[in-house]
Amino acid sequence: MMDDVLVIVPAFNEAEVIGRTLAELLLVAPRVLVVDDGSSDATAQRARAAGAQVLRLATNLNYGGALQAGFRYAVRRTDFRYLVAFDADGQHDPADLAELVAPLKRNEADYVIGSRYLEGPRGRGARAAGNRLFAAAASLALGARITDATSGLIGLTREVAEVFLLELFPQDYPDADVIVMLRRMGFRLREIPVTMRPSPSGRSMHSGILRPLYYIAKMTVSMIHLATRSDLRAKRKEAKIAA
Hints:
alpha/beta
């Protein structure tokens, strides 16, 4: 059991799957906060019925905004030292959580990425190619190997969560650019291998044509911007003071 870890689950219209996801997750992690991102279905009700705490947003803030709301709640309303971001759609395996937070508890890392590709195949298609592209770009910017720059399964310390309350945190897709930002702030990053399961709903936040194009353009600009900023260590100190 992980009584000292708060698991944050952003959820938007996940009523069909949230109950199954939480039933499995709560067996491993007893403290779960579901951030209902302005859902129009019964996501919040079913999350409460499953036993999770629910933070319901009045409007849809997108994935990054919902995640930031969860971090804000954790920093300002709880005393958890370790936090985990976990997807609502059932793709993540709760059995991976103990290994995910272990480097945090041993004080070996501040931010741990659950990598789908550290030991497993990357797959094919445009999405896999995009993952390879941003992993390579993040590795180049950091001077260290990153295999999965777009994972939604992450573990982090409270200090990292404080940084995520800054305006620098992306409101849509916090992925490779966040990794670059944290490394340039001086945080220690680690990857551990995790299992990714098929989504029961079959949906993806990057589906369609325009969304992937927007994601590629936005992420490229954001990574370049953060890789060239000279004030990020000062921003880390600013976040600590503000928290």
